[in-house]
UniProtKB/TrEMBL annotation:
A single GO cellular-component term on record: cytoplasm
Domain spans labelled Radical SAM core: 120-361
Protein name from the UniProt record: Dual-specificity RNA methyltransferase RlmN
Biological source species: Tabrizicola piscis
Gene behind the chain: rlmN
Residues annotated for [4Fe-4S] cluster binding in this entry: 134, 138, 141
Length: 390
Protein backbone atom coordinates (compact mmCIF):
# COMPACT_ATOMS: atom_id res chain seq x y z
CA UNK A 1 0.00 0.00 0.00
CA UNK A 2 1.38 3.39 -0.92
CA UNK A 3 1.32 6.54 1.17
CA UNK A 4 -1.60 8.94 0.83
CA UNK A 5 -1.20 11.17 -2.19
CA UNK A 6 -3.52 14.02 -1.36
CA UNK A 7 -4.71 14.06 2.18
CA UNK A 8 -7.23 16.54 3.50
CA UNK A 9 -7.28 18.39 0.21
CA UNK A 10 -10.40 20.18 1.20
CA UNK A 11 -11.07 21.10 4.79
CA UNK A 12 -14.25 22.97 5.51
CA UNK A 13 -15.30 24.60 8.76
CA UNK A 14 -17.32 22.31 10.98
CA UNK A 15 -20.69 23.64 11.87
CA UNK A 16 -23.89 21.97 12.85
CA UNK A 17 -27.17 23.54 11.88
CA UNK A 18 -29.25 24.50 14.88
CA UNK A 19 -32.71 25.14 13.60
CA UNK A 20 -36.36 24.43 14.32
CA UNK A 21 -37.10 24.54 10.61
CA UNK A 22 -37.78 21.39 8.62
CA UNK A 23 -35.04 20.24 6.30
CA UNK A 24 -36.57 19.45 2.93
CA UNK A 25 -33.85 17.01 1.91
CA UNK A 26 -34.94 13.40 2.26
CA UNK A 27 -38.68 14.03 2.66
CA UNK A 28 -40.74 11.87 0.36
CA UNK A 29 -43.17 13.62 -2.00
CA UNK A 30 -46.06 12.82 0.36
CA UNK A 31 -44.20 14.08 3.40
CA UNK A 32 -43.13 17.26 1.66
CA UNK A 33 -46.64 17.91 0.40
CA UNK A 34 -48.04 17.54 3.91
CA UNK A 35 -45.33 19.83 5.27
CA UNK A 36 -46.10 22.48 2.65
CA UNK A 37 -49.76 22.43 3.61
CA UNK A 38 -48.94 22.57 7.32
CA UNK A 39 -46.77 25.63 6.58
CA UNK A 40 -49.73 27.44 4.99
CA UNK A 41 -49.76 26.38 1.34
CA UNK A 42 -53.41 26.21 0.20
CA UNK A 43 -54.32 22.57 -0.44
CA UNK A 44 -55.43 23.33 -3.98
CA UNK A 45 -51.95 24.63 -4.82
CA UNK A 46 -49.99 22.02 -2.93
CA UNK A 47 -49.43 19.66 -5.84
CA UNK A 48 -48.11 22.40 -8.10
CA UNK A 49 -45.89 23.96 -5.44
CA UNK A 50 -44.52 20.57 -4.55
CA UNK A 51 -43.59 19.94 -8.19
CA UNK A 52 -41.89 23.32 -8.53
CA UNK A 53 -39.94 23.02 -5.31
CA UNK A 54 -38.94 19.45 -6.07
CA UNK A 55 -37.47 20.50 -9.41
CA UNK A 56 -35.50 23.35 -7.90
CA UNK A 57 -34.07 21.19 -5.18
CA UNK A 58 -33.46 17.90 -6.93
CA UNK A 59 -33.16 18.77 -10.60
CA UNK A 60 -31.31 22.08 -10.43
CA UNK A 61 -29.61 21.57 -7.07
CA UNK A 62 -30.67 25.01 -5.81
CA UNK A 63 -30.29 25.57 -2.06
CA UNK A 64 -31.66 29.08 -1.71
CA UNK A 65 -35.40 29.75 -1.79
CA UNK A 66 -34.75 33.27 -3.07
CA UNK A 67 -33.46 31.81 -6.35
CA UNK A 68 -36.69 29.92 -7.07
CA UNK A 69 -37.88 32.47 -9.56
CA UNK A 70 -41.11 30.82 -10.67
CA UNK A 71 -42.48 31.13 -7.12
CA UNK A 72 -44.05 34.37 -5.90
CA UNK A 73 -41.77 36.42 -3.66
CA UNK A 74 -43.98 36.10 -0.59
CA UNK A 75 -44.24 32.35 -1.09
CA UNK A 76 -40.44 32.13 -1.22
CA UNK A 77 -40.39 34.01 2.07
CA UNK A 78 -42.92 31.61 3.56
CA UNK A 79 -40.76 28.68 2.53
CA UNK A 80 -37.66 30.27 4.02
CA UNK A 81 -39.55 30.80 7.29
CA UNK A 82 -40.45 27.14 7.63
CA UNK A 83 -37.84 25.14 5.78
CA UNK A 84 -34.14 24.68 5.17
CA UNK A 85 -32.30 22.84 2.39
CA UNK A 86 -29.33 21.29 4.11
CA UNK A 87 -26.82 18.58 3.36
CA UNK A 88 -24.43 16.80 5.69
CA UNK A 89 -21.16 18.62 5.92
CA UNK A 90 -18.06 17.52 4.00
CA UNK A 91 -15.19 17.59 6.48
CA UNK A 92 -12.43 16.34 4.22
CA UNK A 93 -12.07 15.17 0.67
CA UNK A 94 -9.24 12.93 -0.43
CA UNK A 95 -8.40 12.03 -4.02
CA UNK A 96 -6.56 8.81 -4.78
CA UNK A 97 -3.92 8.55 -7.47
CA UNK A 98 -6.47 6.43 -9.40
CA UNK A 99 -9.05 9.23 -9.28
CA UNK A 100 -11.21 7.70 -6.54
CA UNK A 101 -12.59 10.36 -4.22
CA UNK A 102 -13.39 9.81 -0.59
CA UNK A 103 -15.45 12.22 1.46
CA UNK A 104 -15.52 12.23 5.21
CA UNK A 105 -18.96 13.53 6.00
CA UNK A 106 -20.23 14.88 9.28
CA UNK A 107 -23.84 14.40 10.25
CA UNK A 108 -25.92 15.86 13.08
CA UNK A 109 -24.53 14.92 16.46
CA UNK A 110 -20.98 15.10 15.13
CA UNK A 111 -20.85 11.53 13.84
CA UNK A 112 -18.99 10.77 10.66
CA UNK A 113 -19.55 8.51 7.70
CA UNK A 114 -17.66 8.01 4.49
CA UNK A 115 -18.74 8.26 0.88
CA UNK A 116 -16.61 7.04 -2.02
CA UNK A 117 -16.79 8.05 -5.69
CA UNK A 118 -15.23 5.61 -8.14
CA UNK A 119 -14.79 6.88 -11.71
CA UNK A 120 -14.42 4.24 -14.41
CA UNK A 121 -14.29 4.57 -18.19
CA UNK A 122 -17.92 3.65 -18.78
CA UNK A 123 -19.51 4.68 -15.49
CA UNK A 124 -19.10 6.53 -12.24
CA UNK A 125 -20.17 4.77 -9.07
CA UNK A 126 -20.99 6.43 -5.80
CA UNK A 127 -20.70 4.18 -2.75
CA UNK A 128 -22.86 5.52 0.06
CA UNK A 129 -23.34 4.63 3.72
CA UNK A 130 -26.57 3.74 5.51
CA UNK A 131 -25.42 3.63 9.14
CA UNK A 132 -22.69 5.04 11.34
CA UNK A 133 -20.74 1.84 12.02
CA UNK A 134 -22.54 -1.50 11.87
CA UNK A 135 -24.22 -3.76 14.42
CA UNK A 136 -22.91 -6.81 12.63
CA UNK A 137 -19.43 -8.11 13.15
CA UNK A 138 -18.15 -9.72 9.97
CA UNK A 139 -14.65 -10.78 10.89
CA UNK A 140 -12.93 -9.46 7.74
CA UNK A 141 -14.63 -6.04 7.74
CA UNK A 142 -13.17 -3.07 9.51
CA UNK A 143 -16.52 -1.27 9.69
CA UNK A 144 -17.76 -4.29 11.63
CA UNK A 145 -15.30 -3.62 14.44
CA UNK A 146 -16.93 -0.22 14.97
CA UNK A 147 -20.05 -0.20 17.13
CA UNK A 148 -23.24 1.12 15.58
CA UNK A 149 -23.74 4.70 16.57
CA UNK A 150 -26.98 5.28 14.73
CA UNK A 151 -29.01 4.85 11.58
CA UNK A 152 -28.72 7.62 9.03
CA UNK A 153 -31.88 9.56 8.23
CA UNK A 154 -33.27 9.54 4.70
CA UNK A 155 -32.00 13.10 4.34
CA UNK A 156 -28.49 12.10 5.32
CA UNK A 157 -28.55 9.32 2.73
CA UNK A 158 -29.89 11.52 -0.09
CA UNK A 159 -27.49 14.22 1.09
CA UNK A 160 -24.50 12.00 0.34
CA UNK A 161 -25.55 11.83 -3.31
CA UNK A 162 -26.13 15.58 -3.47
CA UNK A 163 -22.84 16.58 -1.89
CA UNK A 164 -20.97 14.35 -4.32
CA UNK A 165 -22.82 16.01 -7.19
CA UNK A 166 -21.83 19.38 -5.73
CA UNK A 167 -18.19 18.37 -5.61
CA UNK A 168 -18.23 16.90 -9.13
CA UNK A 169 -20.11 19.91 -10.49
CA UNK A 170 -22.87 17.70 -11.79
CA UNK A 171 -25.98 19.84 -11.43
CA UNK A 172 -27.42 20.98 -14.77
CA UNK A 173 -26.81 24.57 -15.77
CA UNK A 174 -29.94 26.47 -16.81
CA UNK A 175 -29.98 27.20 -20.53
CA UNK A 176 -27.04 24.90 -21.27
CA UNK A 177 -27.51 21.84 -23.50
CA UNK A 178 -28.47 18.68 -21.67
CA UNK A 179 -25.43 16.63 -20.62
CA UNK A 180 -26.01 12.98 -21.45
CA UNK A 181 -23.02 11.43 -19.72
CA UNK A 182 -23.57 11.26 -16.00
CA UNK A 183 -20.62 11.46 -13.66
CA UNK A 184 -22.59 9.61 -11.01
CA UNK A 185 -24.25 6.97 -13.17
CA UNK A 186 -24.61 4.32 -10.48
CA UNK A 187 -25.15 4.14 -6.75
CA UNK A 188 -24.15 1.25 -4.53
CA UNK A 189 -25.29 0.92 -0.93
CA UNK A 190 -21.99 -0.67 0.01
CA UNK A 191 -20.49 1.86 2.37
CA UNK A 192 -20.75 1.69 6.12
CA UNK A 193 -23.66 -0.17 7.64
CA UNK A 194 -26.22 -2.83 6.84
CA UNK A 195 -28.86 -1.11 4.68
CA UNK A 196 -31.56 -3.65 5.45
CA UNK A 197 -31.32 -2.77 9.15
CA UNK A 198 -32.25 0.79 8.20
CA UNK A 199 -34.82 -0.20 5.61
CA UNK A 200 -37.37 2.61 5.74
CA UNK A 201 -34.85 5.42 5.54
CA UNK A 202 -32.90 3.70 2.77
CA UNK A 203 -36.13 3.14 0.84
CA UNK A 204 -37.33 6.73 1.22
CA UNK A 205 -33.91 8.06 0.22
CA UNK A 206 -33.73 5.89 -2.89
CA UNK A 207 -37.26 6.98 -3.88
CA UNK A 208 -36.03 10.56 -3.84
CA UNK A 209 -32.90 9.69 -5.83
CA UNK A 210 -34.89 7.71 -8.42
CA UNK A 211 -37.64 10.33 -8.83
CA UNK A 212 -37.84 11.35 -12.50
CA UNK A 213 -38.37 15.04 -11.80
CA UNK A 214 -35.13 15.23 -9.87
CA UNK A 215 -31.87 13.30 -9.73
CA UNK A 216 -33.60 10.63 -11.80
CA UNK A 217 -31.29 7.67 -11.45
CA UNK A 218 -33.05 4.56 -12.74
CA UNK A 219 -33.76 1.74 -10.31
CA UNK A 220 -31.38 -0.55 -12.18
CA UNK A 221 -28.56 1.85 -11.52
CA UNK A 222 -28.84 1.30 -7.79
CA UNK A 223 -27.48 -1.80 -6.04
CA UNK A 224 -28.15 -2.55 -2.41
CA UNK A 225 -25.72 -4.89 -0.70
CA UNK A 226 -26.83 -6.94 2.28
CA UNK A 227 -25.05 -9.41 4.50
CA UNK A 228 -28.24 -11.51 4.36
CA UNK A 229 -31.05 -10.01 6.42
CA UNK A 230 -33.50 -12.56 5.06
CA UNK A 231 -36.85 -11.11 6.24
CA UNK A 232 -36.16 -7.77 4.50
CA UNK A 233 -34.82 -9.11 1.21
CA UNK A 234 -38.14 -9.34 -0.67
CA UNK A 235 -39.04 -5.76 0.33
CA UNK A 236 -35.95 -4.54 -1.48
CA UNK A 237 -37.58 -5.58 -4.74
CA UNK A 238 -41.17 -4.65 -3.95
CA UNK A 239 -40.61 -1.34 -2.15
CA UNK A 240 -37.42 -0.03 -3.77
CA UNK A 241 -37.06 -2.04 -6.96
CA UNK A 242 -33.28 -1.74 -7.08
CA UNK A 243 -30.77 -4.49 -7.77
CA UNK A 244 -29.53 -6.74 -5.01
CA UNK A 245 -26.05 -7.84 -4.00
CA UNK A 246 -25.42 -10.36 -1.25
CA UNK A 247 -22.27 -10.69 0.81
CA UNK A 248 -21.99 -14.42 0.40
CA UNK A 249 -18.31 -15.07 1.06
CA UNK A 250 -18.43 -18.78 1.94
CA UNK A 251 -19.80 -22.08 0.69
CA UNK A 252 -20.36 -23.93 3.97
CA UNK A 253 -22.27 -22.78 7.03
CA UNK A 254 -19.25 -23.57 9.15
CA UNK A 255 -17.09 -21.01 7.35
CA UNK A 256 -19.87 -18.50 6.78
CA UNK A 257 -20.72 -18.56 10.50
CA UNK A 258 -17.17 -17.37 11.09
CA UNK A 259 -17.03 -14.74 8.38
CA UNK A 260 -20.58 -13.38 8.36
CA UNK A 261 -22.03 -14.13 11.80
CA UNK A 262 -25.58 -13.23 10.72
CA UNK A 263 -25.36 -16.66 9.06
CA UNK A 264 -26.03 -18.19 12.50
CA UNK A 265 -29.45 -16.57 12.37
CA UNK A 266 -30.21 -17.13 8.67
CA UNK A 267 -28.01 -19.85 7.22
CA UNK A 268 -26.99 -20.47 3.62
CA UNK A 269 -30.03 -22.60 2.77
CA UNK A 270 -32.46 -20.03 4.19
CA UNK A 271 -30.66 -17.20 2.42
CA UNK A 272 -30.69 -19.02 -0.93
CA UNK A 273 -34.40 -19.70 -0.57
CA UNK A 274 -35.05 -15.99 -0.09
CA UNK A 275 -32.88 -15.17 -3.09
CA UNK A 276 -34.63 -17.69 -5.33
CA UNK A 277 -37.90 -16.02 -4.40
CA UNK A 278 -36.60 -12.49 -5.05
CA UNK A 279 -39.43 -10.74 -6.92
CA UNK A 280 -38.56 -9.78 -10.47
CA UNK A 281 -35.45 -11.90 -10.58
CA UNK A 282 -34.38 -12.49 -14.19
CA UNK A 283 -31.33 -12.74 -16.39
CA UNK A 284 -31.30 -9.02 -16.94
CA UNK A 285 -31.70 -8.40 -13.22
CA UNK A 286 -29.34 -10.88 -11.69
CA UNK A 287 -28.31 -11.03 -8.08
CA UNK A 288 -24.68 -10.21 -7.45
CA UNK A 289 -22.94 -12.62 -5.11
CA UNK A 290 -20.06 -10.82 -3.45
CA UNK A 291 -17.24 -13.10 -2.45
CA UNK A 292 -14.22 -11.79 -0.61
CA UNK A 293 -11.08 -13.80 -1.36
CA UNK A 294 -9.31 -14.76 1.87
CA UNK A 295 -6.16 -16.80 1.66
CA UNK A 296 -6.62 -20.35 2.94
CA UNK A 297 -10.14 -19.64 4.24
CA UNK A 298 -12.61 -19.73 1.34
CA UNK A 299 -10.53 -19.73 -1.84
CA UNK A 300 -10.06 -23.34 -2.94
CA UNK A 301 -11.22 -24.98 -6.15
CA UNK A 302 -13.61 -27.06 -4.02
CA UNK A 303 -15.13 -23.83 -2.74
CA UNK A 304 -15.60 -22.63 -6.31
CA UNK A 305 -17.35 -25.88 -7.30
CA UNK A 306 -19.54 -25.77 -4.20
CA UNK A 307 -20.47 -22.19 -4.99
CA UNK A 308 -21.53 -23.17 -8.50
CA UNK A 309 -23.79 -25.86 -7.02
CA UNK A 310 -25.34 -23.43 -4.57
CA UNK A 311 -26.07 -20.93 -7.34
CA UNK A 312 -28.06 -23.45 -9.36
CA UNK A 313 -31.36 -21.97 -10.44
CA UNK A 314 -30.52 -18.41 -9.45
CA UNK A 315 -29.77 -15.80 -12.15
CA UNK A 316 -26.52 -14.63 -10.65
CA UNK A 317 -23.15 -13.10 -11.19
CA UNK A 318 -20.23 -13.50 -8.82
CA UNK A 319 -18.18 -10.50 -7.88
CA UNK A 320 -14.83 -11.63 -6.49
CA UNK A 321 -13.35 -9.10 -4.10
CA UNK A 322 -9.65 -9.42 -3.31
CA UNK A 323 -9.50 -8.90 0.46
CA UNK A 324 -8.49 -5.37 1.39
CA UNK A 325 -6.22 -5.47 4.37
CA UNK A 326 -6.48 -3.17 7.33
CA UNK A 327 -4.25 -2.83 10.37
CA UNK A 328 -4.72 -5.86 12.62
CA UNK A 329 -6.89 -7.77 10.15
CA UNK A 330 -6.85 -11.52 10.84
CA UNK A 331 -6.77 -12.43 7.12
CA UNK A 332 -4.62 -12.16 4.03
CA UNK A 333 -5.61 -11.58 0.44
CA UNK A 334 -5.61 -14.70 -1.74
CA UNK A 335 -2.93 -14.79 -4.41
CA UNK A 336 -3.73 -13.59 -7.91
CA UNK A 337 -3.42 -17.17 -9.18
CA UNK A 338 -5.93 -18.44 -6.67
CA UNK A 339 -8.39 -15.71 -7.48
CA UNK A 340 -8.11 -16.33 -11.23
CA UNK A 341 -8.45 -20.09 -10.85
CA UNK A 342 -11.58 -19.53 -8.73
CA UNK A 343 -12.98 -17.06 -11.26
CA UNK A 344 -12.39 -19.51 -14.14
CA UNK A 345 -14.41 -22.27 -12.51
CA UNK A 346 -17.34 -19.94 -11.92
CA UNK A 347 -17.08 -18.54 -15.43
CA UNK A 348 -17.01 -21.96 -17.07
CA UNK A 349 -20.15 -22.88 -15.16
CA UNK A 350 -21.88 -20.04 -17.02
CA UNK A 351 -21.74 -17.16 -14.55
CA UNK A 352 -20.01 -13.83 -15.02
CA UNK A 353 -17.22 -13.72 -12.44
CA UNK A 354 -15.49 -10.32 -12.54
CA UNK A 355 -12.68 -9.66 -10.11
CA UNK A 356 -13.21 -6.31 -8.42
CA UNK A 357 -10.23 -4.04 -8.85
CA UNK A 358 -9.38 -2.49 -5.50
CA UNK A 359 -9.85 1.25 -5.84
CA UNK A 360 -8.56 4.07 -3.72
CA UNK A 361 -6.36 1.86 -1.56
CA UNK A 362 -3.88 4.67 -1.02
CA UNK A 363 -6.59 6.66 0.74
CA UNK A 364 -8.15 3.63 2.51
CA UNK A 365 -11.26 3.94 0.40
CA UNK A 366 -11.51 0.30 -0.71
CA UNK A 367 -14.29 -2.07 0.40
CA UNK A 368 -14.19 -2.83 4.08
CA UNK A 369 -11.54 -0.23 4.91
CA UNK A 370 -13.86 2.60 5.76
CA UNK A 371 -13.48 2.67 9.49
CA UNK A 372 -9.76 3.06 9.78
CA UNK A 373 -9.76 6.10 7.56
CA UNK A 374 -12.14 7.86 9.92
CA UNK A 375 -9.94 7.00 12.85
CA UNK A 376 -6.85 8.19 11.05
CA UNK A 377 -8.54 11.43 10.14
CA UNK A 378 -9.56 11.87 13.75
CA UNK A 379 -6.11 11.12 14.95
CA UNK A 380 -4.45 13.54 12.60
CA UNK A 381 -6.90 16.26 13.58
CA UNK A 382 -6.18 15.63 17.25
CA UNK A 383 -2.49 15.80 16.45
CA UNK A 384 -2.98 19.03 14.57
CA UNK A 385 -4.96 20.50 17.46
CA UNK A 386 -2.26 19.45 19.92
CA UNK A 387 0.43 21.01 17.76
CA UNK A 388 -1.56 24.22 17.53
CA UNK A 389 -1.87 24.24 21.32
CA UNK A 390 -5.68 23.99 21.20
N1 LIG B 1 -23.22 -4.22 5.06
C1 LIG B 1 -23.45 -4.52 3.70
C2 LIG B 1 -22.88 -3.49 2.74
C3 LIG B 1 -21.52 -2.91 3.02
S1 LIG B 1 -20.08 -3.86 2.75
C4 LIG B 1 -22.91 -5.88 3.38
O1 LIG B 1 -22.22 -6.46 4.19
O2 LIG B 1 -23.22 -6.37 2.31
C5 LIG B 1 -19.76 -3.93 0.99
C6 LIG B 1 -18.99 -5.21 0.59
O3 LIG B 1 -17.58 -5.15 0.98
C7 LIG B 1 -19.56 -6.44 1.28
O4 LIG B 1 -19.66 -7.50 0.38
C8 LIG B 1 -18.52 -6.71 2.33
O5 LIG B 1 -18.59 -8.03 2.75
C9 LIG B 1 -17.25 -6.37 1.61
N2 LIG B 1 -16.09 -6.18 2.50
C10 LIG B 1 -16.08 -5.85 3.81
N3 LIG B 1 -14.81 -5.79 4.29
C11 LIG B 1 -13.99 -6.08 3.26
C12 LIG B 1 -12.58 -6.14 3.11
N4 LIG B 1 -11.77 -5.89 4.12
N5 LIG B 1 -12.08 -6.46 1.90
C13 LIG B 1 -12.91 -6.68 0.85
N6 LIG B 1 -14.25 -6.62 0.92
C14 LIG B 1 -14.80 -6.34 2.11
FE1 LIG C 1 -21.53 -4.69 8.55
FE2 LIG C 1 -21.36 -5.29 5.93
FE3 LIG C 1 -19.13 -4.92 7.38
FE4 LIG C 1 -20.63 -7.10 7.77
S1 LIG C 1 -19.51 -6.55 5.89
S2 LIG C 1 -19.76 -5.79 9.38
S3 LIG C 1 -22.68 -6.28 7.46
S4 LIG C 1 -20.68 -3.37 6.93
Amino acid sequence: MTAPITQDVLTLPRKLPVSDKTNIIGLTRDQLRAALIAAGTPEKQAKMRLGQLWQWVYHWGVRDFALMTNLAKDYRALLADHFTIELPEVVTRQISEDGTRKYLVRIAGGHEVEVVYIPETDRGTLCISSQVGCTLTCSFCHTGTQKLVRNLTAGEIVGQVMLARDDLGEWPVQGAPKVEVRLISNIVLMGMGEPLYNFDNVRDAMKVVMDNEGIALGRRRITLSTSGVVPEIARTATEIGCLLAVSFHATTDEVRDQLVPINKRWNIATLLEALKAYPGLSNSERITFEYVMLEGVNDTKEDAHRLVKLLEGIPAKVNLIPFNEWPGAPYKRSSGNRIHAFADIIYHAGYASPIRTPRGEDIMAACGQLKSATERARKSKAAIAAEAGL
